Fold this protein.
Amino acid sequence: MQVYKHIVIIFILLLSFLSLVSCSFHQTIDNDQLYVGNGAEVQDLDPATVSGVTEHRVLSALFEGLTSLDPKTLQPIPAAAETWEVSNDKTVYTFHLRSNAYWSNGDPVIANDFIYSWKRILSPRLSAEYAYLLFCIKNAKKYYEGQIVNFDEVGAKSLDDHTLQVELEYPTPYFLKMQVHNIWYPIHKDTVEKYGNFDERNNPCTHAGRHTSNGPYHLVEWIPNKIIRVEKNPYYWDKEYVSIPIISFYPIDNQMTEERLFRLGYLDLTSTIPLRKLDYYRINRPQSLLLHPYIGVYYYRLNVKNLPLDNKLVRKALAYSIERSQITEYILKGGERPAFYYVPGGIGSYRSPEKIKYDIEYAKGLLAQAGYPDGKNFPSVEILFNSSEAHKIIAEAIQRMWKKNLNIDVKLLNQDWKVYLSSLNQLDYQIARSAWIADFLDPINFLECFLSYSGNNRTGWVNQQFDNLVESAYKEIDEDKRNQLMFQAEEILLDELPIIPIYFYTWKMLISTRVENLNPNVLGYIHWKELKIKE
Amino acid sequence: MRRYIIRKLLLFIPVLLAIATLTFFLIRLAPGGPFDRDKNVPAEVQQSLERYYHLDEPLLKQYFRYLYGVVRFDFGPSFRKPGYTINEWILMRLPVSIELGVYSLIFALLIGLICGTVAAFYQNTWIDTILTSFAALGICIPAFVLGPILVLIFALHWEILPVAGWDFPQQKILPSISLGFMYSAYIARIIRSSIIEVLKQDYIRTAVAKGSSPTRILFIHALKGSLQPLVTFLGPAIAGLLTGSFIVETIFQIPGLGREFVEATFNRDYTMIIAIVLLYAVLILIFNLIVDIIQGYLDPRISYE
C-alpha cells in the first residue's frame, strides 16, 4: 500500500502544477495591439533583398514608397511623395516629397534616400532578386549589366532634397501602382553603411534596435521564428491617422496551429485558412471568414516539346475537357472562380477573351483529329506537382475527368518543391501544376511570363507574334490601344494553349470581429495605418 | 581512463570530417538550388547571386573553402536568411531546443521510472497489464498525433493550457509531454524488465528478510541495481530528444533548431544544413562518450583499455 501512496502523491503534485499554470499564448489581450499570424518566418527585413508575401506584409507596415494604393479603388494615392507630375510622353515622373516626412530616427526623408536604395539594388553584388522590376528606369538594366559604370547616367535624379525625377526607358502605365512593391522603398543610408558595405547581402542593419524605416511603424522587436513587433513611428508624417499603436507579427507556418490560435482569440488576422476548416467557419463563424478574389491564377503548364503535347489539338482537347466548376465548388470551396482565360479579372479596364469552354464533344473531336480517336494509342502522360494535399486532390480530379471524357490515362507524380522547380527549369516534365501571383497590378505582368525569352516561360513555347504584341504593349501610351494589344496576345496564348488555366485564387483569411476597416482588395494588400480595433 | 577519453576525442575528428564531406556532396547532388524560385530569377541576377556565395567556383574549391571555414568555426552566411550568420542563428535557436529536450527528458524519466517500477512490482496483475499496454501505446503513437490530441483536450476543450508558444512555463508543458511520451514508454519497458530481473537477486531477498518497507526495497535497492540498461538507452535518447524535436516545434510554434533544420533542407540552404548536421553529430558523439564513461562507474567490470 505504501507504494500506492507515494505514487498518488506524485500524481497529485503533477496535476496541481498543471492546473496552477493554465494561461495563454500571450498573457493578456491588449486593446492597443493587433496580433497577426504571418505564415513562414521572414527571410530578412531589408526591402531590397527579400521577395516573398510574408516579408511584404511586414515591410509595408515599416516602409512607405513614393505612392501607395487606396485599398478600396487600388488607385495610386500620395505617400512619401505629396504630389507628382508626369510628362506628356509618360516617360518622366517628377515627385515632390513631403517636407514633413521623417525616418524613424528623426532624419528627414529626402530624394537621395530613394536614389540610394535603387542604386544599391542595381549593384550586381547585392543580387537583389527583384532588381529587374527597376529595369523600367532609363539605363537601369545597362548599369546592372555593367555596360554603364556611372550611376549618374541612370534616369533617377534628385533636383533638390524634396524633388525626385525619374526618367523611364518606355512609358510604363503601372509605374505608380508598382511603388507599393518593397523593391521601390527608400532606405536609410547611414544605417546601412554603419553595419556593413552598401552592397553587402548579409548586412545586420535589419536587426531590432538598428532598423530604420520611414513608414507608419518602426521595428521594436525581432526574435526570429518567434515574433516581429512594430510600434507606431513617432516621426511618421501622418502619425495622427495611425490608429493601432502596436502590431505583433507571429511567424506560424503550421496552418492548423494558426487556426487554433485564432479560434481561441490569440490572433486577429491569419495568413490563410486550412482547407478543411473552411466549412466550419462558413457555418459557425461567417463573420470571421474573409474570402475575396485575388490576382492569382492556378494553371497547368504543358511541355510543348514533348509528344503528344507538341500537338496543339491535343493541348486544346485537354483544356476543353476539364469541368472547372467541379474543382472550385467541391474541392476548393473558398469562392475560387473557374478560369476560362488566363489573366484574372479585376485589373483596371482590361477584359480577357473568354476562349476556353467546357465542351466534351468538341474536345473528343479534337483528339480524334489529332490521331487519337476515343483516346486510342494516346501516349502515356504524367502530371507533375509539388507535394501538397490540395495539388494532389486537384490532379486526381483532372485525371478522372480526362479518363471519363477523353478515355486517356494520365499518371500523377509529386516531387519536393526544389526538385519540382528543377524539373520545371529543365523542361523535364510533361504537364506540371503552376501558378502566377501578380507582382503588380497590370495584365502585362501575367502576359510577359510567356515571352519566348522569359525565364518564367518554362514550357518551350515560342510565338513571335505573341512576343511582338507584348513588346508593343510595353511601349503603347494609349490605354485602349494597349488593352487591345494585350487582348490579342492573350487570344494567341489561349488558342495555342501552352498552359491550361484552371482557377483564379481567392484571398483567404480569418479576421477577428474586433478589427475594422480592412477593405479587402484583389492585391491582398493591407493598408496597416488604416486598420482600427473596435473598443 | 584519461587516455580512453583522449583517444575517443581524437577519433571524433575523422568522423566529423567524414560527415561534413558526405553532407556537403550529398546536398549538392539533390536537384534544385537555394535560389530556385517559383518566379524565375533573371539569369543576370542568378549569376550575381552565385558569384556572391561562391557557387560559381568548382565544387572542390567550394569544398575546401567551406572546410577552412568550419575549422575556424565560421559557418558563413545563411543563403536564405541574409540578415544573420549561421553562428548567430544557431546560438539563438539551440538553447530553445535544449530546453525543450531537457523538459521532455525529465518528463520521460519521471513517468518512465514510476510506471516501470510499479509495473515490475505488481508483475502479472491488472496494474501491470494497464501500465504495459500504456507503454506499448506510447511507443506506437508518434508526436504528430499525440501533440494535436493533447492540444484538442487541454487547450481547445478545457482551455487550461495554451495552444502554442514558448514564453511562459505553461506553454512548455504540452510540447514536453508530446516529445517525451514515447521515451517514457521505452524507459518504462526497460525499467520493468530490468527490475524484474533484479528482484530475483539474493540481496533483495536479504532486504525483505531484514524488514525493509516495499517502497524502500523498490525505489532504493532494486531501482539502483537496474539502472545500467537505462543509461545505455539514455545516451542516444538524449541526442534524439535534442535533435528530433522538429515535429513538436512545428506543432507548438517553438523557435527551436529542429524546425530550422527541416526548413533549411527544403530550401537547400547549404551552409545551414551542414552546420546543423555537424552540430547534431557532435552532440551524439559526446552523449555516447558520456554514456561509455558512466557505464564504467556503474559496472566496474567494463574496461577502458
